[in-house]
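Support request, please re-run this one:
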Amino acid sequence: MTLIQEPDFGTPARPGDATVTLTVDGIPVTVPPETSVMRAAREAGIDIPSLCATDSLEAYGSCRLCVVEIDGARGTPASCTTPVRDGMEVHTQTEQLGELRRGVMELYISDHPLDCLTCSANGDCELQDMAGVTGLREVRYGFEGENHLDAPTDSSNPYFDFDASKCIACARCVRACDEVQGTLALTLEGRGFDTKIAASAGGSFLESECVSCGACVQACPTATLQEKSVVELGLPTRSVITTCAYCGVGCSFKAELRGSELVRMVPYKDGGANEGHSCVKGRFAFGYASHPDRVMAPMVRDSIADDWREVSWDEAIAHTARRLLEIREEHGRGSIGAIISSRTTNEEVYVVQKMVRAAFGNNNVDTCARVCHSPTGYGLKQTFGESAGTQDFSSVDEADVIVVIGANPTDGHPVFGSRMKRRLRNGAKLIVIDPRRIDLVRSPHIEAAYHLPLKPGTNVAVVNAMAHVAVTEGLIDEEFLAERCEDVEAWKEFISLQENSPEAVETITGVDAGELREATRLYAGARNGAIYYGLGVTEHSQGSTMVMGLANLAMATGNIGRRGVGVNPLRGQNNVQGSCDMGSFPHEFPGYRHVSDDGARAVYEQLWATELLDEPGLRIPNMFDAALDGSFRALFVQGEDIAQSDPNTGHVHAALAAMELVVVQDLFVNETAKFAHVLLPGTSFLEKDGTFTNAERRINRVRPVSPARTGKQEWQIVCEIAQAMGYPMHYDDASQIMDEIALTTPTFAGVSFARLDDLGSVQWPCNDAAPEGTPVMHTEEFVRGKGKLQVTPYVPTRERSSRRFPLILTTGRILAHYNVGAQTRRTANVAWHPEDVLELHPHDAEVRGVTDGDMVTLASRVGHTTLKAKVSERMPVGVCYTTFHHPVTGANVVTTDQSDWATNCPEYKVTAVQVSPVPTSVAQREAEDHVVLDG
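Re-run finished. Output below.
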């Protein structure tokens, strides 16, 4: 495979039909109005030289290389900034243009290092290319005068260098930071000869507001901004298109290699989710895949007190199967089960749930979505009839009012966050509902119209109050409700109760009643209002109720079923949606069909040639409880670090320690593997062959950049365990697994590797009715027929602050890290976030004698740990915040086992805690023994 070179048309495409016809060098071309002459020419196959132009950025017109001659027009206008006109006659190659372009190039080269043969960008430099294209053969001046050849190189960023001596001040990096990323961390400083690129206030890239998304590196036409991996390894020679394995945005990348060595990950312009943009994780943090900590061979041990012993694959698989069979025989078929990860492919998830149902003989299978987005599945299923978000990401471009609740897109879903910021800068209004003042509340050129800083745990009261305002002030869409919804009058009667008014709940929520009314009027009165939510909605005791409340609000205002609206869960991990789709819950087959559904069960019984149970199996919390009472004895864990990520860590550790057999399939010896008896090495996304499904239901291909370094794909290992247990289970490759998924799952009926290779990606449902997928759901009717409005009473959480634990802790993520940090902690991303810290309001810090940077004890009813304090006004008084990326902190040691009433999703977002300073004399000792479990 060769290096994939994507065409660059110089300026962005313009919407509309192609109605303007012009001729370029005698060739007729028809394009939409407002298209640039440069783009029209390049679409006709005529390349006009340029340096400052690229089709991901608006035209700038500074380099003067793209000048053309136009019949009847004066001078030689820049083709990038000149719009087409009907009948226009353009000439791109004349003697005059040649002289002008050579003169321009001579000026550039006169102040540029002539080290092309040793430059890291040799062969991949637009300046070098343009010198050749313009026919430049000599440079007559400049070398003896003042120049920038001794300008310094900034190597502070761990992933790329900024060599100022090679900068041509084209401003592509500045514009990319502005137009694509939206951070505005770069600027052009000075005038004339003194013009230079500056990061923030002139400091280093690492110290600046730069978020290392890579947009500037990708935009740079020279070696000024260059990946350190390219400098070290050389330019890549071939590409493989694959999908990022971090968050739920699901960005497409060109993995670019030199031989068998991965040099860089370049965001793919044709990626349906990211359209050529990226974040620091997907762009640069891939080094964990080759980290020396990787487990490369199977290991077994009889007791968790024993040392690991490396064994062959045959021995590991035989041992695992034998122990599973022995435990099932002794304790019953319900005594074994599995937990599936949302970081693995659809195909890997599918075979694990198949192994549990067909080989284990039960439905004891659950997924890490249990602890994040299971309320999304339940709530949207009850209201809309389908357990997934309603829109594609590009839909936000048409939203007029955006509600962000319980989500932090710029940290958790940064590529979509950048897209959202572009829409906000283009005029959309924003409502942020979050206890914390996230970046979207106020950042460069972005300010929320309303920030409603609710108290943790009061989401339902807030959304009910918004719906109350909409109903009682006549802001609902009566026509939509009459035509497309049911149980309308019962819901109206409930929501109109005075107890749901903003004034009645103000003391409960902490949200000003007047502000809430104004925010509701803004959303309900919008032409298009869109809701985006995250774990701050679902990880509550009323998570499912809250999801239904958001669905109610969207239906009541008619904001469903077209572009620019919808209810959109921002999934945290790369394949949370796909993991749920594939039947990884104990009560559902793939496609969200209940195990008691005789028709669905018959499909699998016939195909799998075995009888299946019609009763749901154990959920994750049930597995832990059953392990402690002795009835659940063996667990297969695929790619999930439950010992760090699940709540009430002490309870989880005790459950794992009580089991006779714990089998972990993962890349590293993680916290869960410390309780394992068998450790099966996993594959990184760079070795996987399969698919991920992102937050917008987009199914993307994951293609192997290299063979499995362990010798086996994860789905192969699972199949071999099932076969060793006596159940025949074999596939020749991953595409056969997807074919089986498509055969048995109606929403995936039209999906195949061949179709994905042809179309790039599809959004389910993909079937005969929608062979190219479904970007927007519920357009004519809801999946369940009519949308069902649900009564959503507010029930306070049982987790309350007290004199002993007066603060409320809420948890979340940060841009640099992913989930429990097992991957990103093994990359240079630790430069931005080397440890978890506790954000604390200045008032709460002062009354406790805590100053910024102090070590503090964070204690709850179930455990305590120590970490550094960060005094910050981003938090309201009475609320503190931390992340859970570092096991040394073990933030989940303090979270309780309170959970959602419908799905058992843990209430991570509400934990009563106390914070106290660690005496200097014991701070060092506490740091050495960081995590302490109570009870």
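The first helix runs from residue 37 to 43. The mean pLDDT is 94.
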